[in-house]
């Protein structure tokens, strides 16, 4: 599966690079251009601030890919919240970019500014947390979040032999969380021996997960908890702090996203983290690269008929037997 996933990503990158190489001249075009030389490209990038490990990785990859294209004018903004992101995008749109690559803080609240960009003729690439209205984006790049939820839930059910009490932690309101939870709940719901004691939204934030877990552990102090579906490695690390303070050593967790500290613990056989699941922050670089490749030779109208509108990156279960393939000690995440 990992080989197939890498092949798909590389094949997409090669195709996009080939499209760039086919240009006979010119360095850029407006999104609706039909060919020929046009003005230099301006690309706007809007992403959340690095408020936790995964988004810090997104920040790193967004900055790395910009170095590949020194001829492009970059408008690059990082936002602490939805309101700030909306304002930043409005300001960038006033500078008339050719493309907008956006990873939304939340799905839904930014649909309005997304539609404004579309009406302005901006080529829109949405990454990870998609718009609620899928018609807004010209291209949507995401991990397979339904598979993320399904595969991780199947692992939990299998390790528990179909019987056990479970806590479920959820991320921020978004298409990502919706899909992951839907995929997981379908599996849990098909196994009547799995009892979900509580579902808690902790927004992929370690500190919030720590505080929420403290409260939940008190609430269920008299009940057995067999495992925690933490969904996210940062949340898992926050929950771990609460477990340590409560002296709980009788359960295990499954996080997600392939954070190097967690992957190392899976690799070392830590019983608290028997497995993890991938979700690469480098997908932002994929989105930025495809935006550039699709626009810079001015032939977008000819590219649209065969360019997919939805690129979905597969996810893989990480266990001790294969964790070495996913451990990158020099990675920012």
Question: Can you walk me through this structure?
Answer:
With 333 residues, the chain is of the alpha/beta class. The chain has 2 domains: 2-144 and 282-314, Response regulator (Rossmann fold, 3-Layer(aba) Sandwich), CATH 3.40.50.2300; 145-277, 3-Layer(aba) Sandwich (Rossmann fold). The chain is 41% helix and 17% strand. It is built from 11 helices and 12 strands. It has helices at residues 2-21, 53-66, 82-93, 111-119, 145-159, 175-189, 206-219, 233-246, 260-267, 283-295, 300-303; strands spanning 42-48, 73-79, 99-102, 123-127, 139-143, 164-170, 194-201, 227-229, 252-254, 276-277, 310-313, 317-318. The strands form 3 sheets. The chain has a 6-stranded parallel sheet with strand order 2-1-3-4-5-11, sandwiched between helices. The protein has a 4-stranded parallel sheet with strand order 7-6-8-9, with helices on both faces. The protein has a two-stranded antiparallel sheet with strand order 10-12. β6 (164-170), α6 (175-189) and β7 form a beta-alpha-beta unit. α2 (53-66) runs parallel beside α10 (283-295), α5 runs parallel beside α6 and α7 packs across α8. The radius of gyration is 21 Å and the shape is elongated. The protein starts with a helix and ends in a 15-residue tail after the last strand. The model is unreliable at 1-30 and 32-36 (pLDDT under 50).
Question: Main traits of this protein?
Answer:
333 residues, alpha/beta, Rossmann fold, six-stranded parallel sheet, four-stranded parallel sheet, 12 strands, disordered N terminus
């Amino acid at each position: 599966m990992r080989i197939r996933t890498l092949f798909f990503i590389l094949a997409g990158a090669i195709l996009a690079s080939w499209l760039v190489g086919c240009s006979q001249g010119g360095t850029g075009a407006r999104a609706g251009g039909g060919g020929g030389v046009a003005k230099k490209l301006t690309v706007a990038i809007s992403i959340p601030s690095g408020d936790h490990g995964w988004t810090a990785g997104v920040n790193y990859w967004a900055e790395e890919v910009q170095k590949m294209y020194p001829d492009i004018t970059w408008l690059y903004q990082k936002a602490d919240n939805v309101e700030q992101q909306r304002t930043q995008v409005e300001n960038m749109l006033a500078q008339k970019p050719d493309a907008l690559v956006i990873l939304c803080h939340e799905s839904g609240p930014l649909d309005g500014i997304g539609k404004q960009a579309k009406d302005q003729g901006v080529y829109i690439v949405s990454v990870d947390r998609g718009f609620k209205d899928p018609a807004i984006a010209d291209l949507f790049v995401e991990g397979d979040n339904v598979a993320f939820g399904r595969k991780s839930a199947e692992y939990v059910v299998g390790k528990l032999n179909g019987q056990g009490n479970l806590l479920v932690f959820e991320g921020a309101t978004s298409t990502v969380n919706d899909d992951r939870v839907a995929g997981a709940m379908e599996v849990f719901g098909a196994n009547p021996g799995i009892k979900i004691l509580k579902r808690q939204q902790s927004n992929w934030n370690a500190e919030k997960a720590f505080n929420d877990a403290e409260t939940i552990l008190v609430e269920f102090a008299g009940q057995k908890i067999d495992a925690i579906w933490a969904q996210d490695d940062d949340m898992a690390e926050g929950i771990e702090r609460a477990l340590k303070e409560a002296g709980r050593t009788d359960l295990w967790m499954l996080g997600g996203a392939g954070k190097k500290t967690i992957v190392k613990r899976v690799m070392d056989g830590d019983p608290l983290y028997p497995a993890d699941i991938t979700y690469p922050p480098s997908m932002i670089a994929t989105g930025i690269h495809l935006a550039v490749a699709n626009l810079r030779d001015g032939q977008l109208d000819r590219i649209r008929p065969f360019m997919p509108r939805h690129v979905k990156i597969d996810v893989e279960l990480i266990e001790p037997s294969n964790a070495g393939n996913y451990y990158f000690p020099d990675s920012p995440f």
